[in-house]
Amino acid sequence: MTIDAVRAAAPPDRGRAARRAVPPLMSACVVLVVAMVAAINLSIPKLSASGLHPSATGLLWIVDSYVLVFGCLLIPAGAAGDRFGRKGALLAGLGVFAAGCLLSAAAPAVAVLLAGRLVTGVGAALIMPATLSLLMQVTEPARRPQAIAVWTAATGIAGAVGNVAGGAVLQWLPWQCLFLAGALAAGALAALVTWAAPAGERHHADLDAPGAALLTGALFALLFGIIEGSERGWSSAPVLGGFAGAAVLLAAFAVHAMRAAHPLLDPRLFARASLRSGVLGIGAGFFCLFALFFVNAQYLQYAKGYSPLLTGVAVAPIVVGMIVVSRRSVGLARRFGNRTVITAGLLVIACGLGLLSFADASTPYPLYAVGLLVMSTGMGLCVPPLSVGVMSALPPGRAGLGSGLNSAAREIGSALGVAVLGTVLTGHFTSALPRALAGHAHSAGEAIAAADAAGAGAGAHAQVVSAFTDAMSAGFRVVALIACVVAVLIAPGLSRRDRPDGAGPGRQ
Q: Rounded CA gap, 329 and 313, in Å?
């Protein structure tokens, strides 16, 4: 579809200003749903000290329940937008997102907060694919790769926005206000979408409810095994049952998808190396980024003594790397080849994590910021070319599926990153904590509070902080190693060169 055809199809009362507003508005919607993933990490110290009294695993579930539902439902949500209209899907998503935020803000117990987070995740899943699909609809074909790069940069920058905005809210207000702010932002964006966004194209797309249920169940079971392993024991029946259940449900999903006339996601699509490598690479990048976000806020508040606002501002180097490098990465991939740029990006991420793994309570912030900047440079290098590759591997009529795959890889990778680093953190923290405080080792916040309440003095406080930073270092090194492994695994499936017009991957 040409840009003239898009304009001709637009309602006559949509002015030029409304059309211009669509790209930044779609980016704003993306920033909202992704920023909520980062902002909740900043609230962990306040949640730990709240009347909800969440355990260490409870905190992981509070962070990950939103992200996992978000990621698992993205593909069916993208198909729903293709079938019923992308503008309607976006508006419905903003409404559900606001409702989930309000439920979270009113939560009297951890179970209710988790329910609110799940509802919010459903709304986010409806929002994300609709934004990219609508953006593609109003963008001239020749400019679509750059538009995808800008949209992708928004997903990375959103993490930093969540930290800064969340820090500003949490500096003076209780944690509930974080969710109230999310509800207000969703309402304002819904009003702007109603005014500016086009009705949206419709394509035939089948909704595979059994497939969506099997995939969601499998990933929840996998996450249960990872998160609960450090507390229940890796050989305990519930944890082994979680891993076994994940394997069975994933196998059932694959069998169902191979037999279904119109599957949610045909596994045979991943026979295409460029698509397979793109999805895995995107997941790995956000696995690393949100593992960092999970522990960064705790490190800066527990170890460095920063306030919530200063903690949010201190993540600014992530913004610099994403903005500066993301704008150039697609061009670099055209010049030097996807394989070179993407592999280098993942290895740079690993280097950044390696630098951060040496941080402790005495590390000067400028040195810590260098690690953040190195890591964000790697993200900016690899993620936009990966996203362009995934979208280019599918026909235009499957834009909803392509954007759903892009976003699902991000969110599932984010959820697994939080779970893996959180599990390593909990296990190492418990073992490194002094025996006198081991009974209060459910989280760093609880251990610090217990040491202070017992009048144990600055020495005990310092011991808790040292145990936390040692555990953080171990977690960063595990995540860095995973980034290196993924870089090696996906490199053979990446094209050496893009086509000159950026329309798709070149020869393998």
A: 25
206 backbone dihedrals φ, ψ, rounded to 5°: -90, 135
Q: What is the pLDDT of residue 363?
A: 94
Helices (H), 260-337: 273-298, 308-313, 316-336
- Identify the three-state secondary structure at position 200: coil
> Do 492 and 343 form a contact (C-beta atoms < 8 A)?
no
**What is the dihedral angle through the alpha carbons of 344, 383, 138, 395, rounded to the nearest 10 degrees?**
90
Enumerate the β-bridge partners of residue 505: 498
Percentage helix, strand, coil for the chain under 3-state DSSP, each rounded to 5: 80, 0, 20
pLDDT of residue 74: 78
**Which of 505, 135, 133, 159 is closest to 323 using CA atoms?**
159
Cα 93 to Cα 130: distance, rounded to the nearest angstrom: 9
Burial 183-195 (b: 16+ CB within 10 A, else e): bebbeebbebbee
User: How many degrees, rounded to 5, is the angle at CA 459 between CA 456 and CA 460?
Assistant: 50
Burial 401-417 (b: 16+ CB within 10 A, else e): bbbbbbbbbbbbbbbbb
Q: Which residues does residue 498 pair with via DSSP β-bridges, in sequence order?
A: 505
> Closest Cα to residue 74, out of 33, 104, 114, 22?
33
Phi and psi, residue 326, nearest 5°:
-60, -35
Render pLDDT for 384-412 as a digit per residue (tens, 0 to 9): 888 888 877 776 666 656 766 877 788 88
Model confidence at 500: pLDDT above 50: no
- What is d(CA 318, CA 37) in angstroms, rounded to the nearest whole number? 15
What pLDDT, on a 0 to 100 scale, did the predictor assign at position 508?
37
CB neighbours of residue 233 within 10 Å: 12
Handedness of CA 161, 164, 165, 166 (dihedral sign): positive
Buried b (16+ CB within 10 A) or exposed e, 16-32: eebbebbbebbbbbbbb
* Residues 374, 381: Cα–Cα separation, whole Å: 11
Collapsing DSSP to helix, strand or coil, 52 comes out as coil
8 Å CB contact between 54 and 444: no
pLDDT given for residue 262 in this prediction:
76
Task: Report the distance separating Cα 236 and Cα 67, nearest Å.
Answer: 26
For residue 121 the two structure tokens come to 């995740």
Residues 6 or more apart from 185 whose CB is under 8 A from it?
32
Tell me how far CA of residue 437 lies from CA of 211, 447, 456, in angstroms. Answer: 46, 7, 10
State whether the Cα torsion 316-321-326-328 is positive or negative: positive
278: nearest Cα among 502, 495, 77: 495
Q: Residues 6 or more apart from 453 whose CB is under 8 A from it?
A: none
453/192 Cα distance (integer angstroms): 49
Query: In this structure, what DSSP letter does residue 197 have?
Result: S
Using pLDDT thresholds of 50, 70 and 90, give the confidence band for residue 439.
low
Phi, psi of 272, rounded to the nearest 5 degrees: -75, 115
